[in-house]
């Protein structure tokens, strides 16, 4: 199953188009490597999603065959970590890298 579809079906990302865009931008990583939206997900993969103001890491437990409810998502993905990102800190880091 494609990673963009998997993220949508398991409710990690609410819309497939958003998952597709985030992957295209290089902000979805599987086992530490940036992947494209067409990447074929496998059980045991560790997925890190870096979006606007957060970073979420999950482990694939099962691959669903159809859309699942939010209460069932724990059967398909295990949340490893979730942290918010201060957008202003990111901007400051990028700006300081550009200066030097």
TrEMBL record:
<dbReference type="InterPro" id="IPR002942">
    <property type="entry name" value="S4_RNA-bd"/>
</dbReference>
<dbReference type="Pfam" id="PF01479">
    <property type="entry name" value="S4"/>
</dbReference>
<keyword id="KW-0648">Protein biosynthesis</keyword>
<dbReference type="GO" id="GO:0000049">
    <property type="term" value="F:tRNA binding"/>
</dbReference>
<comment type="function">
    <text>Key component of the ribosome quality control system (RQC), a ribosome-associated complex that mediates the extraction of incompletely synthesized nascent chains from stalled ribosomes and their subsequent degradation. RqcH recruits Ala-charged tRNA, and with RqcP directs the elongation of stalled nascent chains on 50S ribosomal subunits, leading to non-templated C-terminal alanine extensions (Ala tail). The Ala tail promotes nascent chain degradation. RqcP is associated with the translocation-like movement of the peptidyl-tRNA from the A-site into the P-site.</text>
</comment>
<protein>
    <recommendedName>
        <fullName>RQC P-site tRNA stabilizing factor</fullName>
    </recommendedName>
</protein>
<keyword id="KW-0699">rRNA-binding</keyword>
<dbReference type="GO" id="GO:0072344">
    <property type="term" value="P:rescue of stalled ribosome"/>
</dbReference>
<dbReference type="InterPro" id="IPR025490">
    <property type="entry name" value="RqcP"/>
</dbReference>
<feature type="domain" description="RNA-binding S4">
    <location>
        <begin position="1"/>
        <end position="63"/>
    </location>
</feature>
<comment type="similarity">
    <text>Belongs to the RqcP family.</text>
</comment>
<dbReference type="GO" id="GO:0043023">
    <property type="term" value="F:ribosomal large subunit binding"/>
</dbReference>
<keyword id="KW-0820">tRNA-binding</keyword>
<comment type="subunit">
    <text>Associates with stalled 50S ribosomal subunits. Binds to RqcH, 23S rRNA and the P-site tRNA. Does not require RqcH for association with 50S subunits.</text>
</comment>
<dbReference type="GO" id="GO:0019843">
    <property type="term" value="F:rRNA binding"/>
</dbReference>
<dbReference type="InterPro" id="IPR036986">
    <property type="entry name" value="S4_RNA-bd_sf"/>
</dbReference>
<keyword id="KW-0694">RNA-binding</keyword>
